[in-house]
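thought: fold this chain, then report.
action: predict
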Amino acid sequence: MRGEFVDVGGVRLYYYAAGNGGGGEPIVFLHGFPTSSHIWRDVVPLVPDGHRVVVVDLLGYGRSDRPEGRELSIKAHAERVLALLDVLRISYATVIGHDLGGGIAQFLAVRHPTRVARLGLVSSVAFDEWPTREVRLVKATLPLTRYLPAMWVASVLRTDLLRGYSDAQRGGHSVDMYILPFEGAEGRDTLVEHLAALDPCETEALAPRLKDIVAPTAIITGAHDPFLGIGVAERLHESIKESTLEVISDVRHFVPEVAPQRVADMITNLVAR
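observation:
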């Protein structure tokens, strides 16, 4: 695997590539809030041969640049992803999104259907059923959050993310990586920007058009997701014609980390459709 930075609209996005670029269309992985490309590390080696794989750090996450006031809506993230694909000369791809990345993937499939060959939604946000009550409360107090000690804010975020793992000790290493960009005063301010941008109105606006998605679609979720209940995945399944739905027992939110083989199997079946 190799990683590099690409200038997209005046900001640097980090991505890494894998695969041998055979006859199959490329596969693009999008992470969610507040994670990074790290979430796909165990899935990528299991992707079927013959596909170019691109794993992206969205703006403000992982190694990509801080947003510094730039728009962080689903639409803005999607447009930057399209610009990155243009730079990489990828005209269409299988798009796999987790959490907020799933919302971005839905946007691409609805608004830019010729760019999405197949669609994979993993524990995806959708409709108006996100963010969680806790995040909504934090959003309501954002003016105060900007002045709270950065270390305390990072600690609260870490505790909340650990609820997404059945085994908190196992998830601790990943969570530490995810919150690294949000440590310190500058990181706290970046987190505030992300929180302010989380808007369920965006996915709610997409809902009536999910029925128009033509890309073969696979949906997978954990049975005990504390952030996005199983009902969200079921509604997506009902809304997207001929989609498949898999619910993994004894798994919470971070399905790509806890059940990478199941996600890879989903992708294998999806690209064969």
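thought: worth noting. DSSP finds eleven helices and eight strands in the chain.
final: tokens above.
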